Amino acid sequence: MIDLDGVGVDFEGVRALEGIDLRIEDDEFVTVVGPSGCGKTTLLRAIGGLQAPTAGAVRIDGDSPAVAQAGARLGFVFQNHTLLPWKSATENVTFLREMAGEEPRREEAQDLLASVGLEGFEDAKPRELSGGMNQRVAIARAIHLGADVLLMDEPFGELDEITRDELGVEVRDIWRRERKTVVFVTHSVPEAVFLADRCVVMGATGRIERVFEIDLPTSRDEDVFGSRAFQEQVAAVRRTLHESYA
Amino acid sequence: MPEATRFTRHGRGWIERASYPVGALALAVGVWWGLTLAFEIPPFLLPPPEAVAARLLNDPALYARNALFTLEKVVYGGSVGIVVGFALALGVAYLPWFRRAIYPYLVTARVLPKVAIAPVLLIYLGTGLITAVVFVALIAFFPVVLSTAAGLSNAPAEHHDLLESVDAGWIRRVVYVDLPYALPDAFAGLKQAVTLSVVGAVIAEWIAADNGLGFVILIASENVRADVMLAALAVLVVEGLALYGAVTLAQRAAGRWSALE
Asked: Which pLDDT belongs to residue B242?
């Protein structure tokens, strides 16, 4: 369980986050949506211990983020895939585990690559793979770490829309298969609605504007994009965003 | 890399690429030979190529021995310079107080003509190997510091976030991320350092030594022996190229686990 209690972040007098109260349950998929500069990435970094809050506290299963980091309990996926260019896909998947001081498991890493559709690319270097494929490697790396919490910072931000949709479906599948707690930051409203159990809408002043319970089937594929329920909820989130920034 | 490309690079293509510089060299030697013949230049001013070759073949031990003396200065001095330069680069890259304290003096060291230091060293260290080693090290360390320190900031910030997110620690970050990302720049500095080391060794041999190719050139100059000078110079060029080639080979080997490719 992730618990944010009155979290605020100031950057040299500029308020990036203010009064964030949020509780994320185990195995929950939460998306955070808002325009650039709304503080959503800062929120994710505060949860992951990469940004110290100037007010309030973050707890991960009762511990500080620093303790969770040391226990390899936080798996980050960034907008940039952050794969090491001189390592193969398999080596990149095991790399983070090694950096956490844990034993890498090569075969498990290769199984993971296969499970994200990269069978046959185990020895490929990042420059030999497309942007979407590299991001799949980065996701496999976060899962291989064995963390219970996945923190994803606009991981599909640099991909084309078709690849985004495909990867969205896959991330939902991975989440159902692996039983992880996911916090997923995005500026795409459809993506935020499609992926989420709950969707947190960030307002203009670094505050949470509203939290939507997303009412869609647990198992989701591309057909969801065309469904009426999906489109209505996308419209509702959009409306909230536009009112907040009007 | 596909097999076909590999074949071209190391097979026929290699010969083709080498043919241009080899051709240019042959042309230059031809012009040299033609000039000495056409203008009847006296051999003590500009000996013909065959006279220089004869000089080399007449006493190969002399040139080999002195080439080794020069190599000794380059290797010892260059190694000291590279190790010290690398250590300073780590300090500059990771210790802000150290960077602020030392950077103005690094810039000063760059402006200072190193040749001017050699006579000073002579007073304190005498004419032995140690003077040459210190002088070569002084000349060689500088490009290593600047290039390596710059290279150590090559790794994207998100890579540091990634390692911090698992509390990997400073040492792992430096060894597994920063250093591999720094290698292309570090090798650029290393190549400069090796080239400058040869320059430094020759200067040291002019000022404070009684052996080495630089010393041979100096003595030959005093005795107006152009053939000996040119022979020593030719050996020096080969030696410099060999050292440069060694660094290039090391760079290629390091490319397997770094950002060099």
From this structure: 95
Mean pLDDT of B65-94: 96
Distance between CA atoms of B87 and B62, rounded to whole angstroms? 38
Closest CA to B183 of A85, A195, A37, A22: A85
- Class level of CATH domain B46-257: mainly alpha
Which CATH number is A2-73+149-244's, of 3.40.50.970, 3.30.1490.190, 3.40.50.300, 3.40.50.150? 3.40.50.300
| pLDDT value at residue A35 | 86
In 3D space, the residue among B69, B77, B56 whose CA is nearest the CA of residue B205 turns out to be B69
The answer to whether residue B257 neighbours chain A at the CB level (below 8 Å) is yes
For B112-131, the pLDDT digits (tens) are: 888 888 888 889 988 889 99
Each residue's pLDDT tens digit, B4-30: 444 445 556 888 888 998 999 999 999
Helical H segments across chain A, by residue range: 40-47, 65-70, 89-99, 106-115, 131-144, 161-178, 189-195, 228-244
d(CA A216, CA A223): 12
Nearest to A82 among B159, B176, B259 (CB): B159
Q: Which residues of chain B neighbour A101 with C-beta distances below 8 Å?
A: 168
- Residue B260 with chain A: CB contacts under 8 Å: 86
